[in-house]
């Protein structure tokens, strides 16, 4: 085996490993930390959970009613609400891209957002 | 030799780059732009996503269609078809074509599943409080007298005219959302949309494939941890509809858990070994009806059904924490739970 061949094999291995690293990084990126809070189809907040400070804020529903949204340690949930079923509170923290936090009576949805993730 | 290695290097790096580029391309092309719409109807959160230049018009029309169907099929709205039928005191009632079609399907599916699907269970469901949230365990006398009126074969339908025996009431909750997602798909197609996906409270139906030609990835919930996903299946042009015991349930004072899918046999929550049934097929209405019926039938009944009609695929979760899926989806099924998953054997 000549030096050149060894070198080229080295390059192949290098390119492959770099590609793998990029692929893994790419995958991680798609696990968005961006969430959107949507009230009856209007995006009222767009937040990057990795940047947000711990806080709780209230969202009023125009036809009456409210939900308290809590952000803590990069996680988001509805901590309190005056809706009758409290399904939104029971959902707990937002975890899955497929399962949003929903308050049906107040037409409120909190979900991961693929936009704004910064490419 | 040197040339060969060089060629391999170039080939490999080319492969990497082509893999990386295709996704970028998918995002940037104009006709692949998507629009999304939330609809709060039928006591469910619905999200629709459509691709292409007609997406917005299609979504608006689909939303109108959803609200129209809700109005026809609602069991609580006093102007609905179902309200009229349930308060007819035995008189014949004219209903919309949608309602008639769903009732006919409910009867057909009842017949195909040993009466496991029965739309006349509604008074029993009310007694348990599953319709209002005021849950209670009915006493045996009340239950047995209510069960006397439960028999879908007494529902008489001729064209668009429905007649129920007195004191019998129906509700189409086990079928309405499946039919609705079929109708959304039709509305999308009528508006020239060829790529769309909807989720009606977790029940998914897709039109075509993703705009880049790849399959949609659909998650099915873990019935033991309903806020997490259990498996991913890749589909195109299919409905993926789940009935699970986690969707609506309550815990009685003695600690017993009661869920909303009732067994027409005894009026109690169906407890035949399954905690979740997912049906995958071309027609949302069929899948919706079957997911309820096969939940009631249990594992053996579900596998029998699969033998009789292999055009559907199933994902069954048993109460001893095992996943069973049909061989038709073996290539596009990914288990992401800690449960064991195996292919259903039809031998």
Describe the structure.
Chain A is α+β, with helices and mostly antiparallel strands and 119 residues long. Chain A contains two helices and seven strands, in the order H-E-E-E-E-E-H-E-E. The longest helix of chain A is centred in the N-terminal third of the chain and has 28 residues. Helix content of chain B is 35%, strand content 26%. Chain B has eight helices and 17 strands. In chain B, the strands form four sheets. Chain B has a nine-stranded mixed sheet with strand order 1-2-6-7-10-13-14-15-17, with helices on one face. In chain B, strands 3-5-4 form a three-stranded antiparallel sheet. The longest helix of chain B is centred in the N-terminal third of the chain and has 27 residues. Chain B starts with a helix and ends with a strand.
Topology of helices and strands:
The complex is a heterodimer of chains A (119) and B (347).
Chain A: H1 3-30, E1 34-39, E2 42-48, E3 55-60, E4 66-72, E5 75-81, H2 87-90, E6 101-103, E7 108-112
Antiparallel strand pairs in A: 1-2, 1-7, 3-4, 4-5, 6-7
Chain B: H1 2-28, E1 34-41, E2 44-51, H2 55-73, H3 81-86, E3 93-94, H4 97-112, H5 122-128, H6 140-147, E4 156-158, E5 161-163, H7 176-190, E6 196-200, E7 203-207, E8 216-222, E9 225-235, E10 239-244, E11 249-251, E12 257-259, E13 274-281, H8 284-308, E14 313-318, E15 322-325, E16 333-335, E17 340-343
Parallel strand pairs in B: 15-17
Antiparallel strand pairs in B: 1-2, 2-6, 3-5, 4-5, 6-7, 7-10, 8-9, 9-16, 10-13, 11-12, 13-14, 14-15
Low-confidence stretches of chain B are: 12-28
Largest interface: A-B, 29 and 26 residues
Biggest sheet of chain A, strands in spatial order?
2-1-7-6
Average pLDDT reading of chain B: 92
| Structural class category of chain A | alpha+beta
Helix content bin of chain A: 25-40%
The level of helicity of chain B is 25-40%
- List how many beta strands of chain B DSSP finds: 17
Round the Cα radius of gyration of chain A to an integer and report it. 22 Å
Largest sheet composition of chain A: 4 strands, antiparallel
Number of helices of chain A: 2
